[in-house]
Amino acid sequence: MRQRNYGPWYSAPQGLWLTLFFAAPLFIIIVYSFLKKGLYGGVEPGFSLAAWHALGGGTLLAVALRTLLVSLVATSITILIALPASYSIARSSNQSLRLFLIIVPFWTNFLVRVYAWIAILGSEGFLNDALRWLGILSTPAQFLYNQGTVVLVLVYMYLPYAILPLFSTIEKFDFTLLEAARDLGASRLTAIVRILLPNIRGGIVTAVLFTFIPIFGAYAVPLLVGGKDAYMLGNIIADQVTKTRNWPLAASISMAVTLITGIGALVYAYTSSRPAAPQVDDAEDDLDYIIQAEALP
Amino acid sequence: MLGSNVSISGLSKSFGDFKALKDVSLEIKKGEFFSLLGPSGCGKTTLLRLIAGFEDPDSGLVSIDGRDVTGLPPDKRRCNTVFQSYALFPHLTVFENVAFPLRIRKTPGKKVRELVKRHLDLVQLEKHADKKPSQLSGGQKQRVAIARALINEPSVLLLDEPLSALDAKLRQHMLVELDSIHDEVGITFIYVTHDQAEALSVSDRIAVMDGGKILQVGSPQDIYENPKAEFVARFIGDTNLFSGKVVSFSNGISLVQDERIGAIKVEAGNEAPEGSWVSVAVRPEKIRISLAPPAEAGPLGNVVKGMVDEPIYSGFQSKYYVRTPGGGHLVVFRQHAQWSEGVPDIKWKDEVWLSWSARDAVVVEASGTSIAPVVSGDSLDE
Ligand SMILES: Nc1ncnc2c1ncn2[C@@H]1O[C@H](COP(=O)(O)OP(=O)(O)OP(=O)(O)O)[C@@H](O)[C@H]1O
Ligand SMILES: [Mg+2]
Questions:
Q1: Annotation: CATH topology of B6-225
Q2: What is the rounded CA–CA span in Å between residue A41 and residue A44?
Q3: Does domain B240-371 have CATH number 2.40.50.100?
Q4: What is the atom index within ligand 1 of the atom nearest the CA of B49?
Q5: Which of A231, B142, B276, B364 is most buried, most CB within 10 Å of its CB?
Q6: Ligand 2: distance of its center to the CA of B160 in Å?
Q7: Digit-coded pLDDT (tens) for A92-140
């Protein structure tokens, strides 16, 4: 009797889910980017490459570069903080408490957390109050609405996404390897750079992807704490949809963003996957060795 | 101390409330194969980690080659460690693992190749230089770890139960190999093990540890033939322990009254004067077992009658558990040295005679006060 393979049927819900919420919207966006723009938003039937030509425009390119720069800087800072943080969590004796504290902010809505930063940094905010109370400032300073604040809040928002994957790889790391490295003459820093980092590469790659991709598409943070000069691609897209009402252009920018992050993800995934080393049969090999050694004069 | 390679004095270490090492002192000579032997949890690894510098002592000093290294980090000490789990770097090849210490010191490439080759030759791994650790067998990993630890030309090599992850046959083989590597490189080996057979077979000297303390330091023969504590006698090999009061002492022979076995003659010096309580050990292979009473006991002879509780045949020898009428248990080995056709076999429930010389009994512990006697002999449920 032949066993029928029901596998594809069992996985059907996943396929359906992906089609409905991922492939179909993507397809619609691709199609929109090649249509004519409607007068009051929306699209009109008829093929047009106008939206794709518009991508080369000066302001758009400037915003794209700024987005890339902000994303790179914010991701780097996030990883630099997340590495020692997750290392210390992995080595501490109360891991679950510390992990819990990392996750707690997730219980608050994303926007509420952004507004919390406004409450801290705003001209009537806690920071200004504190500095004036200490006599360091006499008039309120403006901490909001610049690139630095955007980076700060982005780092805050995405830090947990970097810490969690890093923690889970560092936790699996065998710390006697660090002791071995120290024993063999490496300083503390050398041991970490030459032994720890290469062995947690997978976790670092995941952490970079988990932070870079959402930051590259950031919308709310630059909008709320960044102001007009800190606009990122996400804001441009939103403006094209809601204000300028150039839907094909919004679609083509979206596609460009998706392509860039997608290529980045693929390159990373490719470089981080190493072919698994073939295993040898332990016992047999050792036996060979004994036999060889015993045959020696 | 002059000529000593590793010198440890008054070393103590606690983890929280738990005292893992209590005032340990040791002198290890240059080039010695020195073993730390003791049961699980007795503090062997802790002592090794203090020597290596992974841990700092609460009090006491460690010096290597006459230099006080207490408080120095591991990379500033002239000793290297072979870890129980090997601790090979999984992302590096065998070659790069062994070369690691040289790369740290920025040794020129030509020198690196030369040194690594020599050390891979030493452990017979030339052919595996390009493999990753995951492609190696247990014994091969072990040898990479040894080569890597030796390439710095340390003054002391620390080995923490290096063979415990290997199967019995390979363990035996690696032990011989370790011994020959020791002969070849000529540096001090400090070897941690809980396997007494391993320690006895390769060590120049052994320190027996229990409960964070060193109970006895001596050559394998010393430790085996002259245990200075009941624990040492019990831990190394099989043993029969008697205890009781010394009822008389003359001509270097003490008569010890064990309540289950009776009066036992022991050759002793002044460590067991009349009236003291002593523990006495007799090794099972020193006792003769026969179905007929021995011809003549003589002034040094001990003779005890008993019944075989359990005979265990193991080819080259048999092991007998014998119970005496007084409720004592003794264990006896009999070598099957020659073809013994015609000699009656000793079987279960047979009545037997045990005899041994007062010379083969040693006083392991003595005290002037009256302490309660311990259960004598080895019991079946060991
Ligand atoms: N970092 C630590 N924290 C708390 N307790 C520890 C620590 N290291 C060791 N100990 C305790 O100290 C005691 C001695 O440990 P150690 O590892 O030295 O034993 P060992 O003789 O090497 O035993 P084994 O043969 O099982 O390896 C043990 O009871 C252990 O629980
Ligand atoms: Mg140990």
A1: Rossmann fold (3.40.50)
A2: 9
A3: yes
A4: 18
A5: B142
A6: 7
A7: 999 999 999 998 988 899 999 999 999 999 888 889 889 888 888 888 8
